[in-house]
Specification:
alpha+beta, 16% strand, globular
Length: 200
């Protein structure tokens, strides 16, 4: 298969019917235990500030983010292990979850702090964010060997608003960068000596 054909097939597969996160957690086999791509979607206007990037089959579903697993040849990570193991847990190991937390910082009353050099959330904040994901988000996926070889082209075609890498030209990218910066700023402030100690 040529690279162009692989990109087209992947883009089409990522716009297959999206499965709610709650159903994926009940039946993880919805996600392949294989390398490839996954797409995070939400019902339209769940994140009102994020521009609508429509699903080909369902106009009420909006694309948020496209990811790959693994990101390099030496990793044994799969789509399933990446989504379930990282994107639905801490913010330190998931770019998507980090951005999502940054955008929902005030709406979910999240309080980031620094754990050594990484931004982290308390157990309660993480549970609240995960519950929000289960309630509002959906997933699609596409198995593909060596997904990093066509990642840039796939992102360029789908234009997911919450991706940063390979997506600098997107109109929403400045908002994503600003939200991430504010998330880090609050984490540093919470961890400074002048900050009021919190039990986490």
């Amino acid at each position: 298969m040529t690279i162009n054909a692989g990109v087209g097939k992947t883009v089409q597969a990522l716009q297959s019917p999206a499965v709610p996160v709650a159903e994926v957690l009940e039946s993880p086999e919805f996600l392949p235990a294989a390398p490839g791509f996954y797409g995070w979607w939400s019902l339209r206007e769940v994140l009102a500030a994020v521009p609508h990037t429509h699903h080909l089959i369902n106009e009420d579903v909006s694309l948020l983010y496209v990811g790959i697993s693994p990101v390099r040849e030496t990793s044994r990570q799969t789509i399933r292990s990446r989504v379930v193991g990282n994107h639905l847990n801490g913010v330190g190991s998931s770019t998507f979850r980090f951005v999502l937390a940054a955008l929902l910082l005030d709406a979910l009353d999240l309080h980031p702090y620094l754990r050594r050099t990484k931004v982290a959330l308390s157990a309660d904040d993480n549970r609240r964010l995960s519950a929000w994901q289960r309630e509002h988000l959906l997933l699609t996926s596409c198995a593909r060997e060596r997904p990093w070889e066509i990642e840039t082209e796939v992102i360029a075609q789908l234009a997911p608003p919450l991706n940063s890498a390979g997506n600098a030209a997107h109109a929403f990218n400045p908002v994503v960068r600003a939200a991430r910066a504010e998330f880090r700023r609050r984490a540093r402030a919470a961890s400074s000596p002048a900050a009021t100690p919190r039990t986490i």
